[in-house]
């Protein structure tokens, strides 16, 4: 379970954020971080830069010190927005995580984990962010073979020695990718999907990461927005939203799963959003959970899961059981 620490400068904090060890790095991170995919502006519908900056400021003022982005988010725009935010911050108060592996610089977007490209991408991210060192640099969803071979991690190790990055991480989709990453002792964090609709990583990856002091970053904790309770089986999305390309059957299936979860939480005591985030935080292998946010209001709602946790142990058990026992939750996992 998490351990509470007071943030260094209490003048800007209105609530008590909780912090957790970031694996074996010796660094503590806010147990709720800021996911920077949406503020890139081209994956979750229209977003105004003014709103993004206000959201980032709200997160910082309530104790968030971990900000995750990637160069592909808005093809650099998410990093540029973070750069504007960082200009008003003491650099030592903020940890910036970025990723590389989706080459959008040279024609059609493609995966690229070649040594020269990773070095190039790192330099581009450093320039956009306006910083000298990226705190956590991650391979962005590499295939299993790239993780096992280790050459790409070797490039990140060189960047680490040169002072361009502090820590080395990898973002993964499948359990075998995460387990392969754990076997490479140079890797200090693993970012993976973990939410009420997809709890596969709790079986092996989370406990093994905990044992090996490798930080777990839980992404998509709100299942791309569906665990906010906003979307119905027939929901449609704008063209500049990556969910626009999802088959209708997928949207319907996810919405049906969410309804079963809402039935377990038939209470006004806490929102679905808070329950979803609190559930993930109940796993002490998780160093930080990174819900996305486009507005200050969304940030504040997300942070309530840490500031005023309300999920009861009985509810958490029921949420685990419904995932394990209901055949519906085995459908649609890829």
Please describe the structure with a list of short key phrases separated by commas or semicolons.
alpha/beta, 334 residues, 13 strands, 37% helix, 8-stranded parallel β-sheet, TIM Barrel, globular, disordered N terminus
The counted number of beta strands is 13
Oligomeric grouping of the chains: single chain
- Helix content estimate: 25-40%
| Rg computed from alpha carbons, rounded to a whole number of angstroms | 19 Å
Structure in words:
Helix content is 37%, strand content 16%. It is α/β, with parallel strands linked by helices and 334 residues long. It has a single domain (15-225, 271-311), classed as TIM Barrel (Alpha-Beta Barrel), CATH 3.20.20.100. Strand 10, helix 6 and strand 11 form a beta-alpha-beta unit. Helix 1 (49-61) runs parallel beside helix 10. The longest helix has 17 residues, at 248-264. The relative contact order is 0.14.
Quick recap of the structure?
This protein is of the alpha/beta class and 334 residues long. Helix content is 37%, strand content 16%.
Topology of helices and strands:
Blueprint: E1 3-4, E2 18-21, E3 28-30, E4 34-35, H1 49-61, E5 66-68, H2 77-86, E6 95-100, E7 102-103, E8 110-111, H3 115-129, E9 134-140, H4 144-149, H5 151-161, E10 165-171, H6 175-182, E11 189-193, H7 205-211, E12 215-219, H8 248-264, H9 272-281, E13 286-289, H10 296-307, H11 313-325
Parallel strand pairs: 4-5, 5-6, 6-9, 9-10, 10-11, 11-12, 12-13
Antiparallel strand pairs: 1-2, 2-3, 7-8
Helix pairs in contact: 1-2, 1-10, 9-10
């Amino acid at each position: 379970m998490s351990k509470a620490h007071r943030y260094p400068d209490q003048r800007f904090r209105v609530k008590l954020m909780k912090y957790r060890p970031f694996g074996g790095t010796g660094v503590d991170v806010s147990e709720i971080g800021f996911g920077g995919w949406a503020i890139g502006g081209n994956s979750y519908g229209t977003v105004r830069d003014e709103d993004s900056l206000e959201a980032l400021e709200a997160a910082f003022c309530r104790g968030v010190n971990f900000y995750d982005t990637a160069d592909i988010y808005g093809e650099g725009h998410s990093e540029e927005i973070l750069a504007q935010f960082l200009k008003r911050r003491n650099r030592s108060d903020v940890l910036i995580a970025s990723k590389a592996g989706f080459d959008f610089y040279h024609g059609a977007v493609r995966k690229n984990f070649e040594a020269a490209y990773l070095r190039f991408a790192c330099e581009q991210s450093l320039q956009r962010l306006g910083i000298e060192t990226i705190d956590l640099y991650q391979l962005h969803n590499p295939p299993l073979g790239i993780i096992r071979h280790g050459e790409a991690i070797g490039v990140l190790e060189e960047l680490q020695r040169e002072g361009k990055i502090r820590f080395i991480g990898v973002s993964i989709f499948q359990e075998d990718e995460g387990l392969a990453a754990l076997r490479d002792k140079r890797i200090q964090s693993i970012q993976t999907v973990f939410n009420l609709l997809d709890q596969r990583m709790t079986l092996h990856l989370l406990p093994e990461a905990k044992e090996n002091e490798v930080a777990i970053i839980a992404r998509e904790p709100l299942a791309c927005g569906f665990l906010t309770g906003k979307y119905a089986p027939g929901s449609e999305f704008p063209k500049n939203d990556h969910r626009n390309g999802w088959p209708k059957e997928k949207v319907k299936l996810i919405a049906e799963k969410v309804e079963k979860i809402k039935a377990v939480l038939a209470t006004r005591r806490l929102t679905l959003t808070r329950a979803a985030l609190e559930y993930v935080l109940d796993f002490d292998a998780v160093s930080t959970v990174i819900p996305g946010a486009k507005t200050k209001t969304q940030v504040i709602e997300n942070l309530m899961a840490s500031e005023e946790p309300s999920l009861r142990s009985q509810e958490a058990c029921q949420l685990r059981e419904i995932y394990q026992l209901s055949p519906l939750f085995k459908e649609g996992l890829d």
